[in-house]
Specification:
By secondary structure, the protein is α/β, with parallel strands linked by helices. The chain has 2 domains: about 1-105 and about 265-374, Isopropylmalate Dehydrogenase (3-Layer(aba) Sandwich), CATH 3.40.718; about 120-260, Isopropylmalate Dehydrogenase. It contains 12 helices and 14 strands. The protein has helices spanning about 15-30, 45-50, 60-65, 90-100, 125, 165-180, 200-210, 225-235, 245-260, 295-310, 315-330, 345-365, and strands at about 1-10, 35-40, 70-75, 105-110, 130-135, 145-155, 155-160, 185-190, 220-225, 240-245, 265-270, 275-280, 335, 345. It has a 10-stranded mixed beta sheet, sandwiched between helices. β11 and β12 (about 275-280) form a beta hairpin. α1 (about 15-30) runs parallel beside α12 (about 345-365) and α8 packs parallel to α9 (about 245-260). Magnesium ion (MG) binds next to α9. Its EC number is 1.1.1.85. Catalyzes the oxidation of 3-carboxy-2-hydroxy-4-methylpentanoate (3-isopropylmalate) to 3-carboxy-4-methyl-2-oxopentanoate. The product decarboxylates to 4-methyl-2 oxopentanoate. InterPro entries: IsoCit/isopropylmalate_DH_CS, IsoPropMal-DH-like_dom, Isopropylmalate_DH.
Length: about 375
């Protein structure tokens, strides 16, 4: 039987609740669709700092290295915000993981499920038909550029971040975005700030070159400020949005807002091998942590992305998406997207319903009903 090893890094806040609720679904899907998953848990983030003094202990890194994928919850929280920046969970664990495994492309698919149109803050006629994917560059730009840090001068403290991109970094993530566009509606929008930033000028030039290999993909350009506006005015115009690291971070939270909740936004961080890191785009949500009310959909759909990108288990991935859609069709929701109080589920209850539906659908060999496939 095909066997895949998965490093499970639940982290902080809602991370452990979401991962705990999702693992049985992934395990069930693997049994139903004929492959085996070996999960190995490891500490990360603030939880790891408390236990070992480090946000990314060596043992965790070793476990990740001997796995084919990382299934990640979330890291961070107020308790660790006062640590020196280089020791905080986000900078000492998540960013190094992305960098160490060269996971340069972050895929964040956003669609407005027909069943969830009432959860969107936008009018139904604007939210309906939204089906886009943000391809965010993940290992470069202002997050990693040097110099970075603080300088003490006679005038006081100065802080520096550097936005830098090499052509090769733009080329490789652009190729991923064009390949995805080919499998979708063949429209790619490069979001940048080429009217101000030199790095954006290089992005435009490089993306135009790469586009020559993809004559079937329609390429257009949009400044990031306008893109932020267009996402709320006319989000259905987008198919693939390609952007640098920081713009992608900001726009993806906005795009999740269009769908109704950050708890709906899954993500895959991939590189040039099959290894990937799969996590919700949202964070540790301290405001709702520990209450069993967080929406597990982003975590569950991140599992589907893992099946698809790291294991090529497409059928199981699609079955998970269908099961989530079916549970939503029946009206069940977690509190963040619920309208009718009689259908509100806890995190665990919602995940259990997805597992039940997965099994039921398998038994009746139900065909997929909708897709959130990038
Ligand atoms: N990948 C990560 O690990 C990651 C990502 C983003 C933020 N963070 C960290 O998380 C901490 C909190 O950051 P924040 O509050 O700015 O962002 P957040 O993403 O944790 O939360 C933003 C809002 O979205 C809601 N939300 C997020 N996930 C949800 C879910 N599954 N179900 C329902 N609602 C959900 C939260 O309740 C909150 O109102 C910070 O330490 C931040 O650095 C980590
Ligand atoms: C926690 C933080 C470092 C991270 C990022 O900015 O990449 C998060 O916001 C995300 O979107 O994955
Ligand atoms: Mg973010």
């Amino acid at each position: 039987m095909k066997t895949y090893r998965v490093a499970v890094l639940s982290g902080d806040g809602i991370g452990p609740e979401l991962v705990r609720a999702t693992i049985p679904i992934l395990r069930l899907a693997s049994h139903l669709y004929g492959f085996e998953l070996i999960f190995e848990e490891a500490l990360v983030g603030g939880t790891a700092i408390e236990a070992t003094g480090k946000a990314l202990p060596l043992e965790t890194l070793e476990i990740c290295k001997r796995s084919q994928a990382i299934f990640f919850g979330a890291v961070g929280g107020k308790q660790w915000d006062s640590l020196p920046p280089e020791k905080q969970p986000e900078r000492a664990a998540l960013l190094p993981l992305r960098k160490t495994f060269s996971l340069f492309a972050n895929l964040r698919p956003v669609s407005c499920y027909p069943e969830l149109l009432d959860a969107s803050p936008l009018k139904p006629q604007i939210a309906s038909g939204v089906d886009l994917i943000i391809v965010r560059e993940l290992t470069g730009g202002i997050y990693f550029g040097q110099p970075k840090g603080k300088i003490y001068t006679e005038q006081g403290e100065k802080a520096i971040d550097t936005l830098v991109y090499e052509t090769s970094e733009i080329e490789r993530v652009s190729a991923v975005a064009f390949e995805i566009a080919l499998r979708r509606r063949k429209k790619l929008t490069l979001v940048d700030k080429a009217n101000v930033l030199e790095s954006s000028v290089l992005w435009r030039k490089t993306v135009k070159e790469i586009a020559k290999n993809y004559p079937d993909v329609q390429l257009n350009f949009m400044y990031v400020d306008n893109a932020a506006l267009q996402l709320v005015l006319k989000p259905a115009q987008f198919d693939v949005i390609l952007c640098e690291n920081l713009f992608g971070d900001i726009l993806s939270d906005e795009a999740a807002g269009i769908a109704g909740s950050l708890g709906l936004l899954a993500s895959a961080s991939i590189g040039s091998t099959k290894f990937g890191l799969y996590e919700p785009a949202g964070g540790s949500a301290p405001d709702i942590a520990g209450k069993n009310i967080a929406n597990p959909i982003a975590q569950i759909l991140s599992g589907a992305l893992m099946f698809e990108y790291s294991f090529q288990e497409e059928e199981a991935a699609q079955a998970i998406r269908t099961a989530v859609g079916d549970v939503l069709k029946e009206g069940y929701r977690t509190a963040d997207i619920a309208q009718d109080p009689s259908y509100i589920c806890t995190t665990e209850q919602f995940a259990d319903k997805v597992a039940q539906k997965l099994e039921e659908n398998f038994k009746s060999k139900k065909e997929p009903v909708f897709s959130e496939k990038p």
